[in-house]
Design a protein that fits this description.
- About 35% of the residues lie in helices and about 20% in strands.
- The chain contains 15 helices and 18 strands.
- The protein has helices at about 10-15, 20-30, 60-65, 95-100, 100-125, 145-155, 165, 180-185, 185-195, 215-225, 240, 245-255, 275-280, 290-295, 370-380; strands at about 35-45, 55, 70-75, 80, 90-95, 130-135, 160, 205, 230-235, 265-270, 285-290, 300-310, 310-315, 325-330, 335-340, 350, 355-360, 360-365.
- β14 (about 325-330) and β15 form a beta hairpin.
Length: about 400
């Protein structure tokens, strides 16, 4: 039988999509009658090599997973930049009610955070240049809206996913693939057809590296369509690229020489952190796909840090982790952070970051919009140094 091997929403919410050892743990606890109240903390003890911070993302979906269940949830706001060993979320409740949700909860936070962090690093390195997310072809289509949301939260300027209009309220961007030009068999005919039939609200950005040299095709495009051309896109594959900076310099020089100084240049295809730093002085926008869709993983884990015994919370943890419920305090601008025991006060100019989102299954705090979260991320990025490109 042919099908999509994707989990339905009900199975995720019911804890079916989990690891079998959590199901077995729950069964053992039920049969022995053992049911202790715990506080479980989410944190990332080790960020990827070269990373000094990450972007916390996926909270909205995490709350959707946990609401209507007998738990209380504290969390830092979605979009908060954080450092290693800082508490991100605390889930409080009876362990038998929490056990099977550890897998999907970590999967949501870890995947979202990994994509959003990579997007934020690239955006910070791009300075004032735009970055567009073109990474859906690298991912299973079932998670396309999630990936677009994570990348946009991370600070990217737009996404290409057509479905993101429906799921996220984001207007997708993108112009044409090489296939359009190849089917026409002629660049000029393809460019003119695009200009004739595509809505006027879409910028006329012409793909200029299909058959001939990029410099030649860029000039062909602007001569064919004149001032209707907003920009040209170079999507040269790595196998033919050579020195990309030199190619962009040639295209820019040629356009300027012929009076097209206002025509923008967009570069896509194999773009990463080092490429953005190398080209940001020449390029107006970047299209980035795989490096965001498959980023370095932010290893978020979840551990018991307190157990209730005789009506009192007792600090506990496995070795290598810090016991006790904690609070993250921050002084802005920047990431001036303090991690203190829960209930301990920080200096007056520090703000507490973990706040209650769910109380005994009921959502008790307003969830910000995707635009508000992105703005929050960009504000924080403006307060920190540029990362070392990796």
């Amino acid at each position: 039988m042919l099908r999509f091997y994707i989990a339905c929403e009900k199975d995720i919410l019911d804890g079916v999509v989990t690891d079998v050892y959590f199901v077995r743990t729950r069964e053992i606890l039920e049969k022995t009658g053992l049911n202790k109240k715990v506080r479980m903390e989410l944190h990332a003890y080790n960020l990827p090599k070269g990373y000094e911070w990450a972007v916390y993302a996926g909270l909205e979906e995490a709350l959707y997973l946990l609401k209507d269940k007998p738990v209380t949830v504290y969390s830092i706001p979605e979009g908060t930049l954080f450092k290693s060993k800082e508490p991100l979320m605390v889930v409080e409740g009876y362990y038998r009610d929490i056990a099977v949700y550890e897998t999907p909860l970590l999967g949501i936070i870890r995947h979202y955070t990994s994509i959003a962090t990579k997007a934020a690093r690239l955006k910070r390195l791009a300075l004032d240049k735009k970055i567009l997310f073109f990474g859906l072809r690298a991912l299973h289509p079932a998670i396309a809206p999630m990936a677009d949301r994570a990348a946009y939260i991370g600070g990217l300027d737009a996404v290409s996913g057509y479905a993101s209009k429906k799921y996220l309220g984001l207007e997708p961007v993108g112009t044409m693939p090489h296939a359009l030009i190849i089917v026409f068999g002629n660049q000029v005919e393809a460019w003119k057809a695009f200009d004739k039939y595509v809505d006027e609200s879409v910028p006329r950005i012409m793909l200029v590296d299909t058959f001939y040299d990029e410099r030649i095709e860029a000039l062909m495009a602007v001569k064919a369509l004149g001032d209707r051309v907003y920009g040209v896109r170079l999507d040269t594959p790595s196998s033919r690229r050579g020195n990309m900076k030199a190619i962009v310099e040639e295209v820019r020089w040629t356009l300027d020489l012929h009076g097209y100084k206002d025509v923008k240049i967009v570069v896509s295809g194999g773009v990463g952190e080092k490429e953005i730093v190398e080209l940001r002085g020449l390029v107006d926008a970047f299209g980035v796909g795989t490096s965001i869709a498959f980023p370095k993983s932010i290893d978020v884990s979840m551990d018991i840090v307190e157990i209730e015994e005789d009506g009192e919370w007792k600090p506990v943890s496995k070795r290598g982790k810090l016991p006790g419920m904690k609070q993250l305090w921050r002084k802005r601008p920047g990431l001036n952070d303090l991690v203190l025991a829960w209930g301990e006060k920080a200096p007056e100019d520090y703000k507490l970051m973990l706040v209650k989102y769910i109380e005994n299954g009921e959502l008790v705090r307003k969830i910000p919009s995707i635009e508000e979260i992105r703005k929050y991320v960009l504000e924080q990025l403006s307060e920190i140094p540029e990362p070392q490109p990796l």
